Amino acid sequence: MKLRSLLLIAAVLCSTQVMAANSQQEKMKTCNADAKTKNLSGDARKSFMSSCLKADSGVASAPATQQDKMKVCNQNASAQALKGDARKTFMSDCLKKKPA
Fold first, then answer.
1. Where is the secretion signal located (predicted)?
2. Alpha carbon of residue 62 to chain centroid
3. Model confidence over 23-52: pLDDT tens digits?
């Protein structure tokens, strides 16, 4: 009976790991498609991908400190290749948002 229980637990753990891997693959596909749609390349693409993958996992949605929030907003502005007044406006709005 103990062996059967251990096998059941092992099967559940393995299936959970497979589902997590599939979830990560789906995130990567979605973020890649979004980056391609926005014609991003180089550092802007790297920044966008980082933000996108973190946002999907909930890490970037609620930065712990103002410095973290500034970093996330800056990455998102860079990913969108914003410059000048458009970047200032975006940063202002982004930093004013309440954490999710």
1. 1-20
2. 11
3. 778 888 888 888 888 888 888 888 888 888
